[in-house]
Amino acid sequence: MKSNFEKLLKITNKIADLHYANSLLSWDQECYMPSKGSRYRAQQMATLSGLAHELSTSQEYEDLLKRCNEDKNLNSIEKRNVELLLKDYEKAKKLSTEFVQRLSIATSRAFQAWIGARRSNDFKAFVPELENMLSIQKEKAEIYGYEEHIYNALINDYEEGAKVSDLDILFSQVSSKLKPLMDKIASSKQVEDGFMYQNFAKDAQWNYGIEILKQLGYDMEAGRQDISEHPFSTSFSPEDVRVTTRVNENNLYDMLWSCIHEGGHALYEQGLSAEQYGLPCGSAVSLGIHESQSRFYENNIGRSFAFWQLNFDKLKNTFPQQLAKVDLQKFYEAVNIVKPSLIRTDADELSYHFHIMIRYELEKKMLEGSLQVKELKDAWNAAYKEYLNVDVPSDKEGVLQDVHWSHGGFGYFPTYSLGSFYAAQFEAKMKQDIPSFEEDIQANDFTKILSWLRGNIHQHGRFYNSEELCKNATGEGLNFDYFLKYSEEKYKKIYQFS
Amino acid sequence: MKSNFEKLLKITNKIADLHYANSLLSWDQECYMPSKGSRYRAQQMATLSGLAHELSTSQEYEDLLKRCNEDKNLNSIEKRNVELLLKDYEKAKKLSTEFVQRLSIATSRAFQAWIGARRSNDFKAFVPELENMLSIQKEKAEIYGYEEHIYNALINDYEEGAKVSDLDILFSQVSSKLKPLMDKIASSKQVEDGFMYQNFAKDAQWNYGIEILKQLGYDMEAGRQDISEHPFSTSFSPEDVRVTTRVNENNLYDMLWSCIHEGGHALYEQGLSAEQYGLPCGSAVSLGIHESQSRFYENNIGRSFAFWQLNFDKLKNTFPQQLAKVDLQKFYEAVNIVKPSLIRTDADELSYHFHIMIRYELEKKMLEGSLQVKELKDAWNAAYKEYLNVDVPSDKEGVLQDVHWSHGGFGYFPTYSLGSFYAAQFEAKMKQDIPSFEEDIQANDFTKILSWLRGNIHQHGRFYNSEELCKNATGEGLNFDYFLKYSEEKYKKIYQFS
User: Fold this and answer.
1) Model ipTM value
2) In this structure, are residues B410 and B154 in contact, taking their beta carbons and an 8 Å threshold?
3) Structural domain range at position B370
4) Both B138 and B77 in a single domain?
5) Closest approach of chain A CAs to the CA of B406, in angstroms?
6) Does residue B109 sit within a domain?
7) Are residues B87 and B140 in the same domain?
């Protein structure tokens, strides 16, 4: 006779199968689907989601979860899986079908309004739907319940356990400690990166990117890269984890670092336990930790001097004409240029966190009620002037640039910054644990680094939460000082100040 | 309040969504999936099939079907949909879950055994599993029930209404009327096609194939072509119908005609009614009719003199060196070379039907019990000697060449020949209905031809059965003489006999 846990596994496997099948439909939609395919593709995806939802809210599933939760014979991983599944179930159950449908309608209306407003470059056209979305998000927070601050209820969907009280401290450090660093950079020497904007043949860029992915340890037998409008990574099991990139023939930055960034996400997913398929212990722990993996590879590795020791020669061989007058030092400086600008996704490693801080502060105020949606644009523009000293010339390049709020993603943005901060902290510990850290990178040998990440992060899935994972791996909880120290040391050398 | 028919549509849509999602998973598996992805892909596909099966055998579905069947307010298309859905349902219900599972296990075992036997080139290793498969197929035929001949029960799954009594007459004509034609060809002039086996760059072949597909009217906004090991076409709705091809750098036949053949299948699927999504009137009527579309384009169009009037120049421009010494007549003769050989899938337009006839006779005898599985190899080799005058040097090139029997596809093969015979009959009528038939093809204008097929075949789905469709379109049921006449006229000219 089958145990309750085995019966439970049958359901979690089915839910995962539907979820991953849907991810493939979505991947295909972004990469290959012909335009007329969209009508029935949308319907097919809705059907698979609906069936997954039915299974994961069924009485049978609840009963099994409760019986497993009382089962004394489960091992520690099984126990943790049941505990988290039950928690997820109880959280999902709080939202009524009526609410979920209302949220889904509001999301699709807000998204359409955002598209239209962006096209006409007119924030006002987005206001009514954003107001509606905000009010639904507030309602969701009240249904979930929270301590201290309404924001805590929402960020919990992306970064379990994150709190406004901690985030406020983090971002106050961005402001108080990163701002002076930015100011020093601004008044130091100029870095030149014009050569990154020449013509670089698509195929050559593509092949170079593939080689980099392989170097980093991305398993091409359990993944592949394709082209899509916006780069992303997705997975259909830890044994089929895909990345996408885009290639801009007139900009060498675009493909190369999006490829390394998505590669970092994919290495995490490939490192999850395939035996824990569909279970919390086989799933990524949080968006912040996920982003720590992509940013570690993108910035700590991909923008390091060591990484380009061998790779720059290869790049020069690939584009001999374009890079004829560029040496390693010049290239290294260019890929680390710090230049406050308008668009988050184009931002450098440092000013990036001001983009995030601005969004965090604004969405927090909107949720608190101290900022009205109709005042958002002015507040946005003022914040960009204050923190990045740039004038916002249009809504499209300002408050309308990100899709997140139209999707209902309030509380999502901070996870991007958390990712960088975790990455710096992990790197500091890795340098202690792997004495050959620098030399390994110089030699394009990423075996030990990947194995550190596999052992400390990837393999655990959600067995530990983010904070525990960070403590186990580094001996302490998230500490902004690592990112500050990393940044100071790096940019002091590049911009030559003391 | 929703009508029963609307409620029924909700279920048929869900079943179709699951079915088409599964087709995408399968397409991806053939075209893009990395090797390690296979384990969970198999599980995901089994889950989607299982859910579709649950829906299509549910009590709710049966009740709705029966209520709709008594509904006097349905229009003729709705009525026909309900009638066919009910028929399919009742047929499927005859097979018990126990039987379906047994069949599924037998299929996967027979398939594995076939793979192994093929690898070791040893038919004996396949015998036990093929015997098991044959006995299950006999059992299935008995469960379905049949008139006249056990074979009729099985072919019905692929070609509704087809009967041994008709097929026997058809294939006796292959033997009595096509054989003399083949003999004449064999004793006439030699056709030379060595130039088709030079080096033809992959990209150039690919681009040429895409242009041909577009010419024929394949809608690239509702489809795309990719590479797979074995060419196939598949669809996820009439608005997303894809083809695949393979490109052999040392053989110009391979890509070009597989591309046109799959294009013919795809034109049929693109011509089905998108509004009848998931319903019988939005589905292809039979494998024979499906094959008539692919073979019409592949042979009647793609191997016609008219088709190459303009296209040969384009081909010469694409491969100027390789085709320098080839003129249109020589090329036309080469692509119509008749040369009895061992492998069905490489066979020419005429000897192809002997390959089919041999399989038809053998599987019929096995089902009747007049041929034992263990005698199959000798019977196969004898038949090839008798009908095609070739000696079979190995099981791999003989009785083990096709996957069909290992998949349980008894009764499947004749649909390939039916396709060619229908195609010839349709072409004869088209020539009457479209006076500019030849000139249109010469000018690469396929508008009227496609519109004839859309109006007479594609748009009807399963509203009419194959026989009705053929009668409505051509004024009579399937008549082998059209194929004979088409063949005689064509090959007389090429091989210059009277």
Assistant:
1) 0.93
2) yes
3) 132-498
4) no
5) 28
6) no
7) no
Average pLDDT over residues A143-172: 96
d(CA B190, CA B188): 7
Mean predicted lDDT score pLDDT of chain B: 96
* B contacts of A28 (beta carbons < 8 Å): 24, 28
Within a domain: residue B106? no
| pLDDT at residue number B101 | 85
Residue B262 annotated in active site: yes
The predicted pLDDT at position B183 comes to 93
Residue with tokens 């209520």: B67
B113 belongs to a structural domain: no
Are B480 and B423 within 8 A, CB to CB?
no
CB B411 within 8 A of CB B158: yes
Q: Token pair of A169, please?
A: 């401290």
B contacts of A51 (beta carbons < 8 Å): 14, 18, 51
What is the Cα–Cα distance from B398 to B308, expressed in whole angstroms?
34
A contact test, residue of B41, B54, B224 with most A CBs within 10 A: B41
Quick one: B425 and B359 in the same domain? yes
Is the pLDDT at B1 greater than 80? The verdict is: no
Whether B25 maps to a domain, the answer reads: yes
Return the structure tokens found at A435.
């004495």
Are residues B151 and B86 located together in one domain of the fold?
no
List residues of A whose CB lies inside 8 A of any B CB. Answer: 13-14, 17-18, 20-22, 24-25, 28, 32-37, 39-41, 43-44, 47-48, 51, 219-224, 226, 236-237, 239-240, 274, 277
Residue B86 shares a structural domain with residue B170: no
Percent of chain A with pLDDT over 90: 95
- Number of structural domains, chain B? 2
Of A43, A226, A236, the CB nearest to B37: A236
Residue B364, helix vs strand vs coil? helix
User: Position of tokens 């509004």?
Assistant: B275
pLDDT at B104: 87
Question: pTM of the predicted model, to two decimals?
Answer: 0.94
pLDDT 10s digits, A414-460: 999 999 999 999 999 999 999 999 999 999 999 999 999 999 999 99
Cα B147-B150-B156 angle, rounded to 5 deg: 75
Chain A residues with CB under 8 Å of B222 CB are 34, 36-37
Question: Is there a contact between B24 and A28 if contact means CB atoms under 8 Å apart?
Answer: yes
Q: What is the pLDDT of residues A247-266, one digit of tens each?
A: 999 999 989 999 999 999 99
When pLDDT is cut at 50, 70 and 90, the band that residue A84 belongs to is: very high
